[in-house]
Amino acid sequence: MNRRGAPITRYTHRIASALRRAAEEDQSHMTLTRLVDVLGARAHRVLLLVVSLFNMIPGPPGYGGTIAFTTCAIAVAMLMDRPIRFPGIIGRRKLPLDLMIKASDKIVQVAAILARFSRPRLRWLTAAAANTPYGMLVIAVSLVMALPVPFINAIPNVGLCIIAFSMLNRDGVGVIVGLVATAIGLVIAAAILFGAFHLGTAALGMVRQA
């Protein structure tokens, strides 16, 4: 397949173009509700890709939790086959538009690289019927990533990004790779949580003995 004709290439160019059109309206920030309006209230898979990539961008306190709950809300809407509607506290959250445009340009570059290796195959793993298990996985992972524990969301989020890219490019092999990366990330997250719990319990025991 010609790389320029790959589904993921078309989707990422669409994302970048939509954000640049929004910037032409002299906006400095964009709310998450506005982002949905720009990309489409039923573009569940596209928006899951966008927010998972935004989760890789460092942000202010609470940013990671907001993106995690946003991801969860999109997945719930996809499961219910309904347009995406955010609660006010999430929908009103603003993101800097210039940063989003820079991120979208990176997405286009990464998509061009991935298109060299990724192609439509094992399409049954990316068909509409896959939305249910896909949505359930995203909800589970996003709830883990919402926990206020440093570094807990890094690897699972990489897995979600790979899955999101692969779903849009109809690449079932990529979906499998993303599932493996997500599983590894969840195991590491569980180990971090276990370690934090163990250290907390030990510290509490020492305080009681003092």
UniProtKB/TrEMBL annotation:
Query: What Pfam families does the record point to?
Result: ExoD
InterPro entries associated with the record: ExoD
Entry keywords, A to Z: Membrane, Transmembrane, Transmembrane helix
* Regions crossing the membrane: 124-145, 151-168, 175-197
Aminoacyl-tRNA synthetase listed as a keyword: no
Name by which UniProt lists this protein: Exopolysaccharide biosynthesis protein
- Species whose genome carries this gene: Devosia sediminis
